[in-house]
Amino acid sequence: MILFFFLKSPMAYAQMGSANDIHEIINRVTAIADSNAREKIYVQTDKPSYATNDTMWFKMYLFNAAYLTPSSKSGIAYIEIADNENKVDKRMMVPLFFGLGWGNIVLKEKDFPQGNYIIRAYTNWMRNFDEHYVFKKQFYINSPDQTDFLIKSNFAVEQEAGKPRADIDLQINTINQQPLPNTDFQLRITEGNKVWYRDKIKTSYDGSLNFNFSIPEKANPDQLSVTLQAINKKQENPVYKIPAIFNRPANIDLQFMPEGGYLVAGMDTRIAFKALGEDGNGTLVSGSVYNSKQEEVLSFQSTHLGMGSFNFNPKPAETYTAKIKMPDGTYSKDYMLPGVKSSGIILNVINKLESDSLEICIATTPDMQNPSSLYYLIGQSRGVACYGAVIRLNQQVSKMKVSKTFFPTGIARFTLLNADKQPLNERIVYIDHDDHLRIHITSDKACYTKRDSVGLTIEVTNKNGQPVEGDFSVAVTDDAQVKNDSLKRNSLKSALLLSSDLKGHIEDPSYYFPSTMTTDIWQHLDNLLLTQGWVNYDWTFISQPIKPPSFAAESIFSIKGKVTNIFNKPVKKSGVVLLSKKPSFVKDTITNEEGMFDFRNIYPSDAAVYLIQARNKKGKSFNVGIEVDEFQPPDFSAPAKRVIPWYVNIDSNKIKALHTLATYKEDWEKIYGGKVLAEVKVAAKKIIKDSKNLNEDGGSDFALNEEDLQNAGKVTLGDLLTKNVKGFHLGSAKFPYWYFIEDHFFHLIIDGVDIDWAKPVPFGTPEYQRYVKQFLDYYTAEDVKGIEVMKSSRYSGRYVQTFLGPWDLPWDNAFVEVTTYGGSGPYLKKTPGMYLYKPLPFCPQMQFYSPRYHAKYDSSFVDTRATIYWEPNIITNKDGKASLSFYTADYPGTYTLLIEGSDMNGDIESTSHKIIVK
């Protein structure tokens, strides 16, 4: 017997006992959804990759996850860019208005050299939940001016004397695709900062490099890279890093996931599988399943990106394994299928594309059939309970139909609970009402010429053809320079409706959102949900109290803090002053009963530094301290999937784009009468105010002054040294627990005080390393007004004489003099009654420059824009229409227009349009 409760309409109660139970579950799910109010965030960028010194333009969308309406919780979001080592190079705040924000980030080469990067976006509130809700997008920054070669790579592994040996084949070509013969390279095999192998090697007459390398037992083959640098004493050549992707068939990861969670003997079950290669991508497989007697039971074959499914009826007390067929005709190692249970329940959901209902089948073994036992089937979407049913399993199979209209478009999750409200089975499916927005783009011409005016009309309607008012962002890029892969990219639509609700990397997310859905794609989507959405039991909240969030939602930016006395007690009614130089202003306030203060209506820029002063009731500041609620950045996991640099295994489209760039550059040089010379910089000596530098002229080999440190952002002293001081590192083979600057022993002096003066631990020990590190981690750029490095004997000699002894050689030691604002050495770190505060800046909101050409052609320059047009705020009127215009650049070809957006009431869309330039 089944009692249904359709939660989009008033609930009716047939039996009060069972009805009250499921009502309690529903109320609990609803309370959790209301208290959590999860957010989903998406960022559209103008391009999928960039060149050094380029500008990234972006639009940010923040929604309430349940209804895809603007989030009412957060008015501040964070955007950050991290490098291949997961080190954050840039972090900024983005103000949000009605869930929308936009801005731009200049990718200066000194901050973002050529390499792999990841952009992340999140709110402080989102940190209360799983990391997979954070927006993440990997991209590459290339430097064509520094790249002379294109590289084709092939990696294989053979066994030699029982140990793995990597066979590496590289083909080095010039930018013009000509082989690079007889050229010497410095070669290294690395794993992070660890170098496993180094050698000098020369390309053959055809530009190839072929060598092998015995993989050490301690090395992780999945993280190895080949680093190449051409040997040329006349100039410093760029370094090329090629990730070693082996993709050995024997190392395919094959997993089997039964529908609903597990296998039960004698019951038909659908089993999904997924095969991943060593590169983290799905790989085509075919094979067979065998029983314990090695008898073939069935065969299987993947249908899309290594995924597939088959029906299976396991036998009691039997174990099953699978083998896949290798390229050479042999069969792989055994892959275990999940164990077979003798008792249990099977949950099967049939989701046909053309049907308006889901067919749900619950099958149970005889021992589980009890008319007096109650089970609860709960259907959720976006964390909201949409459906509930009370079930009495008094027969072997119970079937029902559930209307899809109870659920919004997106992922629906069904969970079967027992009488104790413990989850037994789970299954997710995709609901598609085809209710996305319709975006129609009309051009004023069929095609355009160079520097021609383009006029476009955008019309947005809903499923029923009614006009829609909404907010959209548009990027137009030159196909000759920018490769927009509409299938592999994660769009607003695929991110909000699919990727954000599944864990793990999803290949080609937009593949599952074609303009017209087919039965094959629908089946592939279901296989994806059966594998990557497999079993997500988390029903502990049913019996546990709702916990307060660890991270508060930030509706606006404010500077908050607390004033305390020498006994760390709050000082109420204390006067607090906030001073700023750029822009110049002064604000004041008084603390409340808890000693708290709060400054609002502030818009920090990249150079903003604030001085906060506090006084006690007598107007004195010597015995009061200030604590500021500073943003503590989260630590996110590094990307699991390695990004291949653009110059490795480059495809024909990218080669064409590269040649286009070369042509553009030649035309530019013709107009300006030659190549642009490299910039020559003349560095003036930096004198640090209040420094205790022992050299009379304040001399140093390298220095950072107040301006440098104010622009550094919220980073530690250790990060400052790592980024700015060449050769700063921890450990060598002989001295693993010392810090070094190149091959010089590192000594830290703070306000003229050597931290080793009162050193509590012996030199060169792990304890000594931790002792030094606490200073490197404690001080930040906000505490420091200057850093000076004395490494050469010219500047380090005085420090050796003062802090070491006559037996220490100047060229063996390097000293770093740190001047703090407190000026009291390494122990009194803050100035009483004062606090120097540098918040994260707000991301600038500059207007994208789009040239306007007149009838007369100006040949004094060449228009080589890659991003032709960017507009983060295209707003459709009550008729659902908007218009935009821009000018084409100087070369024929095609442009791609990508438009994404929402009516901010639950409906979204992403689409593209082509523009022809002749």
Instruction: Report the portion of residues in β strands.
Output: 35-45%
| Helix percentage | 10-25%
Second rung of CATH, namely the architecture of the domain at 702-822: Beta Complex
Please mark out the parts with pLDDT under 50 across 5 or more consecutive residues, or reply none: 1-17, 671-683
- Helix/sheet category: mainly beta
Can you tell me the overall shape?
A: globular
What do we call the CATH homologous superfamily of the domain at 702-822?
TonB-dependent receptor, plug domain
Largest sheet composition? 7 strands, mixed
* Gap between N and C termini: 69 Å
CATH class of the domain at 702-822: Mainly Beta
Radius of gyration from the alpha-carbon trace, in angstroms: 32 Å
State mean pLDDT (0 to 100 scale): 87
